[in-house]
Amino acid sequence: MTDRRPALASILFIAGILVFVYAIADPDVTYGSDAWSIAVLAALMLLHFGTGMLARSWVALLLPPIAVLLSVPAGLPETAARTEAFPIWFGMLIFIEPLGLAALALGVAVGRFTEHRRRDGFRPISA
Fold first, then answer.
1. Helix axes 5-19, 34-55, angle to 10 degrees
2. Contact between 30 and 40 (Cβ < 8 Å)
3. Which pLDDT score, from 0 to 100, does residue 1 have?
4. Which is higher by pLDDT, 112 or 121?
5. Could you tell me if residue 12 is inside a domain?
6. Which of 36, 58, 66, 118 has minimal Cβ neighbours within 10 Å of its Cβ?
């Protein structure tokens, strides 16, 4: 039987990114609120970390470029008329996804480590 974890993690990740791009970033819900901006960034990093832990596969590192491509049709946020905002995909490419890639890789490493610890059992350090 094949492991379905990477597929499930990918679906949940893509859904989370689409919610972020089209429900939060495009209407720019966090405009003018540093607290909300930090909360959204923390939630995105938790999404990346959790995806890595669930997938436990290095193939999951291909998801951040897909997230950038999915954000291209969103264009500029609605606040671009009153600010000099970059396109959403540019912010994803330069700021969010490099941090997200690190969080995703950390999640995969932690997930693989805990999987091996659980499977092999606890071995004391002393002989």
1. 170
2. yes
3. 42
4. 112
5. yes
6. 118
Q: Is residue 127 part of a domain?
A: no
* Rounded Cα distance, 39 and 2, in Å: 36
pTM here is: 0.86
Pull the structure tokens for residue 117: 């610890």
> Has residue 126 been placed in a domain?
no
Boundaries of domain holding 108: 5-120
For 55-84, letters b (16+ CB in 10 Å) and e give bbbeebeebbeebbebbeebebbeeeeeee
CA end-to-end distance (rounded Å), the chain:
37
Residue whose pair of structure tokens reads 């893509």 in the numeric block: 14
pLDDT over 50 (residue 114): yes
Q: What is the pLDDT of residues 36-87, one digit of tens each?
A: 999 999 999 999 999 999 999 999 999 999 999 999 998 888 776 667 788 9
Closest-CA residue to 100 (of 13, 5, 4): 13
